[in-house]
Amino acid sequence: MKNTIRTLAAILVCTISAGLISCGGTPAVTTSDTTAQPDSTIAADAGYDYGGKDYGGYEFKVLNLDTQFGCYLRLDFAEQTGEALDDAVYLRNRRVEEALNFNLKEIQFDGGTTWGTQQIAACDQLIQSVMAGDDAYDAAYLPLNFKSSVVTDGYVLNLLNIPELKVHEDYWDTIINNELTINDTLYMASGPLNFMSLDLSWVLLFNQDMMDDYKMEYPYQLVRDGKWTLDKFNEYVTAAVSLNGDESFAFSVGGKAVYGIAGHHDSPNGFLYSAGCRYYETDKSGNIQLTLESERLYSTLDKLAAICTITDGKVYFGNGDRTVPDGYLSAFAADRALFLTCELKATLEERDMESTFGLLPMPKYDENQEEYYTLTNPISEFLVIPKTQTDTSRAGTILDALTWESYNDVLPVYYDVTVSQKGLRNEDSIDMLKIVRETRGIECTGVYNITTALSNSLKKLVTADAGNASGAASTVASAKESVEANLQSVLEALEENK
After folding, report:
1. Same domain, 367 and 415
2. Distances (CA, A) of 477 to 272, 289, 292, 299, 414
3. C-alpha atoms less than 13 angstroms from C-alpha of 232 in its C-beta half-sphere
4. What is the predicted pLDDT for the residue at 302?
5. Is residue 358 located within the same domain as residue 418?
6. Structural element, H or E, at residue 30
7. What is the DSSP string of 334-367?
8. Where in the sequence is the domain holding 99, given as residue range(s)?
């Protein structure tokens, strides 16, 4: 039957849509290798201009970690699994394989469980391949924040030199890619072929049942009206705090104290970004200029320090996941906090929570801020193409086609089924998810570790339980010279590799 795979994909998307209407050493490396027979009828109605290209059954190899921080990373499956997102990925790949006559091989690298170890090892895997001059990988998705020398030491290509890659088109992550474009270079890119940068978008969850008990209005309309601000957030947080019979707000698993926030220690980064604070600014060509010493930054830090006070119960910090009883995710699930600062993937981690929770974007600085901003964690994986790639046109065409198809047929499944139907519980939260999706961005200075040390120092100020961030100006001043040197080093490296 003609167009079988395209028809199956259409049925999958239609089924999902109908459902939405009715409801709310050298580490081990494994490979996933699937083969599809070319179908000359696919390209005609696929919607993407494949240009009649035929790659003669070429095996296109992509390096990717098999697991990272509970995110959805898979690029391919040997067969359909019955899970909507898995099957959408499978059908996408077979469709593009047939259109361009190639075979996709995802080479999975052991992600491990220890922070940083395997992320660095995966980056080293690509570096060793390039240094050996082999063709082990046509492309890779790597967490470059753990080892940005993959880029700065010249092991990957400037993606802007590959015209087949339309990295600034809408079906890529245009805001993120714009922010990663520096001085007319882009060595890493984000797009819906890999969902880690989506999973690691900073958001807030709130306990709707607790708000009902407190007779609070859900903040959804505040968000829609542009009035969801740090000050308004602080009002909600403050109103929720209660010792509830406990002697202090020191957290105990069997305790009853209720906190305003169950927080992750890295959440100040998400709040700073959502309040419009940036460590740099760029012009249209990506020329970058540091903007460290700003009154907005200092004012936002003061607001955050006033929100994130510990001894009075406004926040409980505990970075553990649901397997850890005193972790922030467990505290929220146990109705011990009104809000949860988290990444989008937490909606699935909290799916068995008894109380109903809602999703919100992180708050604006004030009502004068024109839009919401959502930070993507810089530890995300990004697409790179190794310097040893001998056919950049072929690589660019395949990756761009996969990304286009993913945007059209897989991304809707990710948002509408995996996150919305499985993770969220009401239409208001799904509306909020649209805002999060449309406002995602990133701090490129964080990806390249230009401002990482400064960022860590400012986080300590916010979480020091002082109620203010009076040392912020001196902290920035003392770090300025080092940050400027880091930036200059990165800029010189990018220009040299250009």
Report:
1. no
2. 18, 16, 9, 16, 43
3. 20
4. 97
5. no
6. strand 29-33
7. TT-EEEEEEETTHHHHTTT-SS-EEEEPPPBSST
8. 4-199+379-423
As a whole number, mean pLDDT of residues 177-184 equals 92
Range 395-405 average pLDDT: 98
If we measure between CA atoms, which residue out of 379, 408, 424, 414 comes closest to residue 203? Answer: 424
Look up residue 262 and give its two tokens: 């169950």
pLDDT at 284: 72
Is 404's pLDDT higher than 80?
yes
d(CA 299, CA 267): 17
pLDDT of residue 111: 87
Residue labelled with tokens 């900073």: 202
Place of tokens 């003061």: 302
Cβ 385 vs Cβ 60: under 8 Å = no
Claim to verify: residue 410 and residue 487 sit in the same structural domain? no
Residues in the chain: 498
For residues 178 and 268, state if they share a domain: no
Helix/strand/coil (H, E, C) string of 185-226?
ECCCECCCCCCHHHHCEEEEEEEHHHHHHHCCCCCHHHHHCC
Secondary structure (3-state) at 148: coil
More confident residue, 110 or 64: 64
**b/e for 458-468, b at 16 or more Cβ within 10 A?**
bbebbbeeeeb
Q: Which of 262, 61, 284, 59 is nearest to 168 (CA)?
A: 284
Token couple for 239: 């109103």
pLDDT at 39 over 90: no
Crossing angle, helix 267-274 and helix 452-462, to 10 degrees? 100
161 and 256 co-located in one domain = no
Using only the alpha carbons of the chain, give its radius of gyration. Answer: 23
Residue 390 clears pLDDT 60, i.e. is over it: yes
